[in-house]
Amino acid sequence: MQRTLGVTYKTAWRIGHQIRDLMGKVDSFQVLKGHIEIDETYFGGYRPRSEGGKDAKTIIMGMKKRGGRIETKIIPDVKTATLRPIVLESIEKGATVSTDELAAYSLLKGDGYFHGAVDHSRKEWVWTDRITGVRHSTNSASAELRQGLTGQATSSP
Questions:
Q1: Predicted pLDDT of residue 134
Q2: Which fold has domain 31-150?
Q3: Domain ranges in the chain?
Q4: Which of 37, 78, 107, 113 is the most buried (most CB within 10 A)?
């Protein structure tokens, strides 16, 4: 683990013990219910376009229950064919799902989910459905995911 991660022996030992400890605490998988935020992030530091840009990074999808736990998956791309099976197996039908404007999430309404999306291209970070009063945002899932990966807190816009 030390060579793979490029860290000191002490750090690798601690990471290994933390992983074992957390694996021991995990209950069996349970689907997410209620209000779920979904977002994806590209992880891997700065890469110029000449070195592959986003294509050279790892894509991580985070699904967070409001006020609850977060499920993460490493995914190869952000296409509907990739995201749909993950959403169907991880989130209970009939749940309220908040995402960003990514076209791949258009699958949600047809599959029995109540879907609301924020449109970041219009500088929209929170959207409230005027009929139901449900507040949609995805920044909580993204921030918690990034903080868990980097160990640093980030502020949302």
A1: 55
A2: Nucleotidyltransferase; domain 5 (3.30.420)
A3: 1-28, 31-150
A4: 37
Report the C-alpha gap between 42 and 59 in whole angstroms. Answer: 5
pTM metric for this prediction: 0.62
SS (H, E, C) the chain: CHHHHCCCHHHHHHHHHHHHHHHHHCCCCCCECCEEEEEEEEECCCCCHHHCHHHHCEEEEEEEECCCCEEEEEECCCCHHHHHHHHHHHECCCCEEEECCCHHHHHHHHCCCEEEECCHHHCCCCEECCCCCCEECCHHHHHHHHHHHHCCCCCCC
pLDDT digits (tens, 9 = 90+) for 38-63: 888 887 777 676 666 666 778 888 88
Q: Alpha carbon of 95 to those of 80, 105, 156: distances in Å?
A: 19, 14, 25
Contact 118, 138 (CB under 8 A): yes
What's the pLDDT tens digit per position in 120-142?
666 666 656 545 555 555 555 55
